[in-house]
Amino acid sequence: MSVERLRVLRELADRGTVAAVAEALSMTPSAVSQQLKVLAREAGVALLEPDGRRVRLTDAGRALVVRADEVLAAMERAATEMASYRGSPRGQVRVALFPSGAALLLPRVLAELAGSGVEVVARDEDVPSSEVPRLLADYDVVLTHRDERSPSITGPRVASRLLMREPIDVAVAAGHRLAGKGAVVPGELADETWISVRSGFPVDDVLRSIATITGVQPRIAQRLIEFSVIEALVASGYGVALMPRHAVRHPDLVMLRLAGVRAARVYDLATRPHAEQRPAVAAVLAAFRSAAERATAEPS
């Protein structure tokens, strides 16, 4: 089987449509379809089946995608071994990060890698962890976050590594009735108006836990994705919010520890399986680990 045809099949598994594969690989849709037909003949089994106006992978197609990952990883390892004879790890590593995690860790990562020959090309991508496999079609490393009670996204096509744990606190305005307390229990928050994030993100998972404990459905006035906007609204007295401890920047907020409920998000680093065997990717992963250790060691 052709390695390039296996790459086309993997792209279809990642991107979902022939048109998207064609755009990603700078091919025409008809050329993509032809490559997939040839691959099916080589495999001797149907790899695709109709799904409305599109196509989807058969069970055999999904099984072959897993093997394609292994073959393409082996090709990268071979290239890496040759590169190792030419000197230190070098090259470009594409990294996706959620914004608050990027603000905390990316400056440290770039400082760690300065002068190493490894170039990090970073983009902000804030999606639920369930969407990380889609991001790995375009990135070598994805920094994502999830509620600490949620399962790891490690699977046949994703390798996920726990990087750090970040507590989630309650943010209130300086004049709020609870501002003088160092910590609060969920029952004290039952009547509050909340400024929260979109559903599916770790902070919202903790808010749902509070609802379970108190038996009161939270009154959510706004759902926003940008923490700086949430902070501004809370500081102005429009509600209270749950905030990851290291993400807080607003000087007029009072942060309260949340007692009686597991309240934290964890950071994961996701790659394709075996990606760390490429020295440049391994260097980036190591830089993230070092950055996380320093971030969590600093007083909040």
The termini sit apart by: 54 Å
**Mind telling me the C-alpha Rg?**
23 Å
Q: Decide which structural class fits the backbone.
A: alpha/beta
CATH fold naming of the largest domain? D-Maltodextrin-Binding Protein, domain 2
Number of helices: 9
Counted beta strands: 12
Q: Give the overall silhouette.
A: globular
- Give the SSE string: HHHEEHEHEHEEEEHEHEEEH
The figure for the number of domains is 3
CATH architecture of the largest domain, by name, is 3-Layer(aba) Sandwich
Beta-strand residue percentage: 15-25%
The CATH C-level class name of the largest domain: Alpha Beta
Mean pLDDT: 90
**What fraction, in percent, of the residue positions are helical?**
40-55%
Largest sheet: 8 strands, mixed
CATH homology superfamily of the largest domain: Periplasmic binding protein-like II
Catalogue the unreliable spans: none
Task: Give the oligomeric state.
Answer: single chain
Structure write-up:
The protein is an alpha/beta fold and 300 residues long. The chain folds into three domains: 3-83, Winged helix-like DNA-binding domain superfamily/Winged helix DNA-binding domain (Arc Repressor Mutant, subunit A); 88-164 and 266-297, D-Maltodextrin-Binding Protein, domain 2 (3-Layer(aba) Sandwich); 166-264, 3-Layer(aba) Sandwich (D-Maltodextrin-Binding Protein, domain 2). Helices cover 41% and strands 24% of the residues. It contains nine helices and twelve strands. The protein has helices spanning 3-15, 18-25, 29-43, 59-84, 99-113, 132-135, 202-214, 227-235, 279-297, and strands at 48-51, 54-57, 91-97, 118-124, 141-147, 159-173, 183-184, 193-196, 219-223, 241-244, 253-258, 264-271. Strands 3, 4, 5, 6, 7, 10, 11 and 12 form an eight-stranded mixed β-sheet that branches. The protein has a two-stranded antiparallel sheet with strand order 1-2. A two-stranded parallel sheet has the order 8-9. Helix 7 links the parallel strand 8 and strand 9 (219-223). Helix 1 (3-15) crosses helix 2 and helix 1 (3-15) crosses helix 4. The termini are far apart.
